[in-house]
Specification:
With 591 residues, this protein is an alpha+beta fold. It has 18 helices and ten strands.
Length: 591
């Protein structure tokens, strides 16, 4: 419909007002339409365009044959321009950002419009050389100047999500004023017909392009064409300086517009490229600043220090926190020079480890102690990466260190508490606190061990998990197979449970068919995986021993601050009840 509207308006101006048209905008409509849809939908669009084009030409008085020829020529022109343009840009509706893009689009427009003009001239013998030339130039100008404007307007009106960017920045109220000024300058240049004034139009378009980008070049040419149309309608046509032939003046005007585009569009592409690079640089600088800020905060919060050593130049970069960790003054940053004599141990452990790992290609870590002159011994953990050149020579070191003194103390306390708890459990076993049927800890031993490990875990902040499980439908097993078989099932379940946990974990029988596993040092996901493994092993292992198929329901509870052995077991028992209510043979975690 837009194509037909432009065609009717253009032909009315030509036939009724004797206007000479420098730009054929319907060509821009056809090319822009192909740019905005996938290639697989081109046939349907081209068929629709063909119908409108033939109907429009016939409504304007052309015969069917002439209308078909003109429609076919317009179709070929649009397909060549759009397909080559998309190939040049690499993806649909992308702004040209290099001289190669601009040259490729120019070539696509010239080839497509030349093909359309040649087809029309060949099939319509009445179309002379000058008429074909004017058609060719008008179509080229329409494609190069009109297509970007139509694509930009399409985006501004909210049709589709094409990534169109023809401007150096956001279009503001100054852009319409700029276009109006270009129109006024063009009208003045054409009206005066002074040979020294056309460069003024070139300069005005270039200044507009510098401010607004490619869209200004397209609008400048269209404003120049509109000025030529207005001057022609107001007088007896547009006469270029030095010419007496109106027809040749029109062609000279079209060539001049084409030169304006050829001059302005590469400038616009270079400016867009420059702005894109500037945007990338600004984004990278912002990201770098944010990363450095976050890194500085992380160093302060986590007690981290950084060190970098360039082996080629001897230059070092010590962060203030790295110096403080090694018992040195923060004021020595960033390059304290040779610090061996400044370190409490003359750097024997630190530099000895670095020398021992000089060939390591992967990051490595080690711990060493520092005894500052004015403080207690501190334990540091260092993570180091070696950098090598193409010849395999180590050229730099990058290290991050952190104070792990408190962590080491907690780990030592935890290890001692665990060892004490294990010793107590062993002593309880020696005192015959075991279940005679299964060989597991009995209820008293299990609860006693749980009480001690709950207290130890709370002191050192170690995670603790409790599993409570019992045999599903155990009464049915006793009723159907006898109590002896039931006892064998319990012993087999106990053996499977013992095999699925770690050596330091405790498994106890706290009721008839009810068992408890106490798991220290396991996080939620690890405890859940162990519980599922235990449930699966019992479900699959009973039948292999010739026993009745046996399954268990499992309740999992994780220790929380303030938990007592009783509250922890109560939550595990509640989770076990939920597992049974949900259908048995499954694991449920306490809320």
């Amino acid at each position: 419909m837009l194509w037909s509207g432009f065609a009717f308006a253009s032909m009315w101006l030509r036939d009724e007002r004797s206007a000479v048209l420098a730009v054929w905008l319907p060509s821009a409509v056809a090319v822009a339409s192909l740019f905005t849809i996938p290639t697989k939908r081109w046939p349907a669009l081209l068929a629709t365009l063909m119908a409108f084009q033939v109907g429009t030409m016939m409504a304007l008085g052309a015969s069917l044959n002439v209308s078909l020829v003109l429609g076919f020529a317009n179709q070929i022109e649009a397909v060549i321009c759009a397909s080559l343009g998309i190939r040049v840009l690499g993806r649909r509706v992308k702004t040209p950002r290099s001289f190669a893009h601009v040259a490729g689009l120019f070539a696509a427009a010239l080839l497509g419009c030349a093909a359309g003009a040649i087809i029309a001239a060949t099939l319509l013998p009445g179309l002379g050389f000058y008429e074909m030339t004017r058609w060719f130039l008008a179509s080229v100008l329409g494609v190069l100047a009109g297509t970007p404007v139509l694509l930009y307007l399409r985006q501004r009106l909210g049709f589709g999500d094409q990534e169109v960017r023809f401007t150096q920045g956001d279009i503001n109220r100054g852009f319409p004023i700029t276009v109006a000024v270009l129109f006024a300058i063009g009208a003045g240049v054409l009206y005066s017909q002074h040979p020294a004034l056309p460069p003024l139009m070139f300069a005005a378009v270039v200044f507009a392009v510098i401010r607004y980008g490619q869209l200004a070049a397209s609008c400048g040419v269209l404003a120049y064409a509109a000025a030529a149309l207005l001057v022609g309608l107001a007088g007896d046509g547009v006469m270029m300086p030095g010419s007496t032939d109106p027809f040749m003046s029109n062609i000279a005007l079209q060539v001049q517009m084409l030169v304006v585009l050829a001059t302005a569009l590469p400038i616009a592409a270079m400016l867009m490229r420059h702005e894109s690079l500037a945007d990338q640089l600004r984004a990278q600088n912002d990201e770098l600043h944010e990363n450095l800020t976050i890194l500085s905060l992380a160093e302060q919060l986590a007690g981290l220090g950084r060190w970098q050593f360039d082996l080629r130049t001897g230059q070092q970069v010590w962060s203030p926190q790295m110096l403080a960790l090694n018992g040195l003054s923060r004021e020595l940053a960033p390059d304290p020079g040779n610090i061996r004599e400044l370190l409490p141990d003359s750097g024997e452990r630190l530099f000895g480890e670095l020398a021992a790992h000089r060939e390591d290609r992967r990051p490595y870590s080690f711990e060493y102690s520092v005894v500052p002159s004015h403080g207690d011994e501190r334990m540091l953990r260092v993570h180091v990466t070696n950098e090598f050149d193409d010849e395999g020579e180590r050229i730099a070191l990058f290290a991050v260190a952190m104070d792990v003194t408190e962590q080491t103390r907690r780990e030592t306390a935890l290890r001692e508490a665990r060892e004490r708890a294990i010793g107590l459990a062993a002593e309880a076993q020696k005192l015959a606190l075991t279940d005679p049927l299964t060989g597991l800890a009995n209820r008293r031993a299990t609860l006693d061990w749980l009480s001690r490990i709950v207290q130890a875990s709370a002191q050192v902040g170690e995670p603790l998990a409790v599993l409570m499980f019992d045999v599903d439908f155990f009464k049915r097993i006793n009723d159907c197979f006898g109590h002896q078989t039931g006892d064998e099932v319990l012993k087999h379940v106990a053996a499977l449970a013992r095999s699925q946990v770690r050596s330091e974990d405790v498994v106890g029988r706290v009721g008839g068919e009810e068992f408890v596993c106490i798991l220290s040092g396991l996080e939620q996901n690890e405890a859940r995986m162990l519980a599922e493994r235990l449930r699966s092993a019992i479900a699959e292992g009973s039948e292999r021993e010739g026993l009745p198929r046996t399954t268990v329901s499992v309740g999992l509870a994780l220790a929380r601050p303030g938990d007592t052995p009783e509250s922890l077991l109560a939550r595990a028992d509640m989770a076990l009840y939920e597992a049974k209510e949900a259908g048995r043979n499954q694991v449920r975690r306490a809320a």
